[in-house]
Amino acid sequence: MMDDYKALYQEVILDHNKKPRNYGTLEHASHHAQGHNPLCGDHLSVALQLQGETIDQIAFRGESCAICKASASMMTAAVKGETREQAQALTQEFLAMATGKLDLSQPNQIGRLAVFAGVRDLPTRVKCAILPWHTLQAALNSVASTSTEAEADPMHAPIGNA
């Protein structure tokens, strides 16, 4: 069973990396943000157009690893047509799942995004998977840029008095 899960994970990641959905620029975006993961060098921008409180259009672009690009691709597909509140709730569930804090046996909205559940076992890749979600939240909250090393990052753990 675990081998089937790993194969599905690899298949989905490779598919979304090779053929990312909603990749590109979005003219006349009402909200946008830049995201950066300094640990691996991922840079990503997310742009969206809200119609009232609904995400009418969304796009992303940037230079990133396969996990980050696949996560961004699946994220844009998952939140397009959703309200700001629904996107924020899904973001919290995704972050909890990626960090091992979400019990997937309980009701949730994760759906196909569950293929990223295994990233919790790869601590160095968690930040790759969550960068697009941080960037989406920054865009929704009119924050120009964010980083996986920001205090709000669930994986951020200050060292000593730093």
Report on this structure:
The chain is of the alpha+beta class and 162 residues long. It has a single domain (2-147), classed as Alpha-Beta Complex (Sufe protein. Chain: A), CATH 3.90.1010.10. 40% of the residues lie in helices and 19% in strands. It has four helices and four strands. It has helices at residues 2-18, 66-79, 84-98, 123-140, and strands at 31-37, 42-51, 54-63, 145-147. A four-stranded mixed sheet has the order 3-2-1-4, covered by helices on one side. Strand 2 (42-51) and strand 3 form a beta hairpin. The protein is globular and about 40 Å long. The model is unreliable at 157-162 (pLDDT under 50).
Reconstruct the topology from this structure.
Blueprint: H1 2-18, E1 31-37, E2 42-51, E3 54-63, H2 66-79, H3 84-98, H4 123-140, E4 145-147
Parallel strand pairs: 1-4
Antiparallel strand pairs: 1-2, 2-3
What's this, in brief?
The protein is α+β, with helices and mostly antiparallel strands. It is built from four helices and four strands.
What characteristics describe this protein?
single chain, 162 residues, alpha+beta, Sufe protein. Chain: A, 4-stranded mixed beta sheet, 4 helices, disordered C terminus
Spatial strand sequence of the major β-sheet? 3-2-1-4
Strand composition percent: 15-25%
Task: Give the uncertain stretches in residue-range form.
Answer: 157-162
**CATH top level label:** Alpha Beta
